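Reviewer comment 2.1 asked that we show a complete input and output for one of the modelled complexes. We chose the cytidine-5'-triphosphate case, as it is the one discussed in the main text.
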Amino acid sequence: MQDLHNKRIVLGMSGGIACYKSADLVRRLVERGAHVDVVMTDAATRFITPVTMQAVSGHPVYTDQWDARIANNMPHIDVSRGADAILVAPASADFMAKLVHGRADDLLSLLCLARACPLLVAPAMNREMWLAAPTQRNVAQLRADGVSILGPGNGQQACGETGDGRMLEPMECVTELIAFFQPKPLKGKRVLITAGPTIEAIDPVRVITNRSSGKTGYALARAAWEAGAQVTLISGPTALDQPYGVTRTVVDSAQQMHDAVMAHVAQQDLFISVAAVADWRVANASSEKLKKDGKGAPNIEFAPNPDILATVAAMPNGPWCVGFAAETENLAQYAEEKRKRKGIAMLVGNLAQHVMDADHTTVSIFDDAGEHRLATSSKQDVARQLIEAIATRMPAVIR
Ligand code: CTP
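Response of the prediction step:
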């Protein structure tokens, strides 16, 4: 998806073994439509060559403040003008110290000081260097100066030690950068989302489930995080990775999903119920595997599951609720009936046969003003539009 279409990014690289990740990072930025100009410190060129970075970015690499290729010989001004952001990845402890003090003795630090665009840095260093008091002071100062700090990650380090200080993985940097450019209508809000199918056991090896892939719910979780929210995702079993920045609890049955929602619902501002919750569970589920005993098909009895959305919507002082409905016919009529029955202000409806497991979707918003149809787009793009629509509809007291 061209999430960074038309964005001009200056990728700064200071010295560190994480420079090997920067080549992959540039490829992924370019894949998403960004124009990337790479600027490397002398130390960075010891870890990976400008030739590699030129090949992956498709543009000349800048390493020298006296670069005669720039007509006015002012690369520290020209390279960053017109840029939407400078991302320094990796940012060494030494480079962050230079930023804090406004030093400008090489092209990259000059460029950062003379910038007219936002600056993001992805620190990369040994865990003791990261925890060292001067580094922590510098990080705090950079934040106070309006610089965005991405990560660092935690785990095994090139030096053999384990802890905080790893540069974020390339895709994590890309996700952070995409989020950086998104509007923040849910800043500071707490959002609870259910997603995916539930599964109801018949016996220890057999289940009843549905075709929900979880993609729409996961896309909404990501979009809500991008919009500045603290997001908790309660998910049925899916093949999807945990969305970056989101806290996830995975459950099986509708009853487990209900219990997980109830455990998290206090303090939430918004509840988005996307999960395809089984309406019925098997009342006579067997604790042993059912055998073919010659008496024909087993007799499966059903008992109703709790309606999670209706329960949350009825809570006094509960979060503002948004429901979903996938129908195979009569969408407008069924969606509107469902919205009223569940007692919610907004419901998102779609035709199930068109969107199950697909990457694109067509949805309509149903609220007191009627039906508002969104254009067909990727589930992530639709999710962003829905988060914007939700944010404008949430009552001011919550917003
Ligand atoms: N939902 C829920 N708990 C249930 C059933 C549904 O929270 N036990 C939520 C879904 O997450 C969705 C909305 O209710 O947001 C509508 O779900 P849907 O299955 O379409 O509605 P039902 O009330 O089950 O109606 P029906 O199956 O008759 O279409």
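The chain has a mean pLDDT of 94. We note this here for comparison with the apo prediction described in Section 3.2.
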